[in-house]
Specification:
alpha+beta; eight-stranded mixed β-sheet; 3 helices
C-alpha cells in the first residue's frame, strides 16, 4: 500500500551549487549525502516536513541521471512514494497495465528497495516506489 510522498528528486548538474541553493537560500537543512552505486547517482537529502527534496547528480559522469542532464538539462526528475509492500504494489499496477523500467525492485538509498514506473505509463511523470527495510 502507498503510504506517503517519500521524496521529490531534482536532477542537478552542479551538486554543490544546488545544495547551497536549497540549504542557504531556500532554507532547508542538508541531512546527508549518499552514493547509490547501482543507480550511478550521488544524492543529497534535504527534509521538508513529511517528505524531502533529493538532489540527484551523476557519479563519474555516468548513468541515467547523466543521460537525463545531457538530454534535458537540470530539473524535476521524479516523485517517489513510499510503499509498505513494493512487490504487491508492482503486481497491482502491472495488472492494471503499467510498465516498469526494471523487471524487479533494485537497491536504493537508505537501504530501500526501489522500482520506477515508466513515464509513458504515467502521463510523462517518472514515479518511483520505495520500500524501507523493516
Ligand atoms: Co528517488
Amino acid at each position: 500500500m502507498i503510504r506517503r510522498l517519500d521524496h521529490i528528486a531534482i536532477a542537478v548538474p552542479d551538486l554543490d551549487a544546488a545544495i547551497r541553493r536549497f540549504a542557504e537560500d531556500i532554507g532547508l537543512e542538508l541531512q546527508g549525502i549518499e552514493d547509490v552505486a547501482d543507480q550511478k547517482t550521488t544524492t543529497a537529502f534535504l527534509p521538508a516536513g513529511e517528505t524531502q527534496i533529493e538532489l540527484i547528480h551523476p557519479m563519474d559522469g555516468q548513468g541515467p541521471v547523466q543521460a537525463y542532464l545531457d538530454k534535458r538539462g537540470g530539473g524535476l526528475h521524479h516523485l517517489c512514494f513510499e510503499t509498505d509492500d513494493i512487490d504487491a504494489d508492482v503486481k497491482r499496477l502491472k495488472d492494471k497495465g503499467y510498465r516498469f523500467i526494471s523487471d524487479a525492485p533494485r537497491p536504493g538509498a537508505h537501504g530501500t528497495r526501489v522500482i520506477f514506473i515508466h513515464p509513458k505509463s504515467c502521463g510523462g511523470v517518472l514515479i518511483e516506489l520505495a520500500e524501507y527495510s523493516k
